[in-house]
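pinned: reference chain
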Amino acid sequence: MLLPDYQGGSIVNLIASIEADMGTEAPRYAPLRQLEPARLRNARNVVLLVIDGLGHDYLTGPGAGSTLHQHVKGRITSVCPPTTASAITTMLTGMAPQQHAITGWFTYFRELGSVITVLPFRPRHGGPPLSESGIEAAVLLRPSPLFDRLVTRSYVVSPERIADSDFNRAHAGAAEVRGYGSLKEMFTTVKGILRENDARKYVYSYWPELDGLAHEHGIGSVQVRDHFAELDAAFRRFVSTIRGSETLIVVTADHGIIDTAPERAIHLDQHPVLAGTLRLPLCGERRFAYCYIHPAKRQQFERYVEEALAGCVALYHSEQLLEQGYFGLGPPHPRLQERIGDYTLVMRENYTIKDSVLGERPYVHTGVHGGQSEQEMYVPLIIVEA
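pinned: its structure tokens
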């Protein structure tokens, strides 16, 4: 398994570099080796553009020769698991999952007795956001927004559909939130922020569409290729229009993506013996699944996985991953251990595993992430001075 480089080569270290320059206190993690805080101090403005799903492997393969590729400085790791819920929370807090304890798309919250989808802030089976039941994201998630620790004026630029979401508002903290409706409008919004006044600024901007297309069509699809070309052209125009603004632009991603196939999907309804050992639905990701096991059925669970699924799955005690530093460094969140279950199923090659709960909308993904392959774990570090 790939261990994220929390010592100075991951996305949490990238945020630490920003915090070391712009923050009111020392960051919890070491700065990124490839971006020392001193380099940021020479910039009037810093823009961090996060392109959801843009793995280093894609940028240096199908994306080779693009403007984004021409400015790549190397690759860095995501966090564990390399997935949006965990990695974007890291981007917004400057903390690894070890501290923020958002451990995947599906996370079990014992304080609710429920599995929720954290980013939409809804129960896994669907329905309205938890805030409509009086459960506030700021209270349940207890975030520590990076923006509350920065001395510079800060902005969060997000798609309109999520800009005012419970998760986004809770993690934006003191930052000003701006929504946008299109790729062109995203870059226009960032450009407008940079020109608003002479104050030093930090702008976090998030683009999700490449990830969405990859889920639907596959990372190797023509739809993703065409969208990447459109995105790259828009980025090139943006850079040219802000020349002379003394802005340092950093582009990276939350994770990379690999393609899978229907025959590589393990469905628990086809494995009733395995399903019968679980006391909760699978949590985490379909490439990195946390299992909560009936105490009397642990041996049965281990035996079934090792005998029936050995070629598809690597089995770990979740506590072992915690002790080995997969989720981060330093003191863990007090609820981290209960959010990673008893065991973790790490999928081999491009296999996935999933179950379903009553009321859940069926969905099928061609492009997937959350596993421990290099394609999923490594993201690009792109730096442009404008």
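why pinned: The domain at 11-259+372-385 is CATH 3.40.720.10 (Alkaline Phosphatase, subunit A). The chain has two domains: 11-259+372-385, 262-368.
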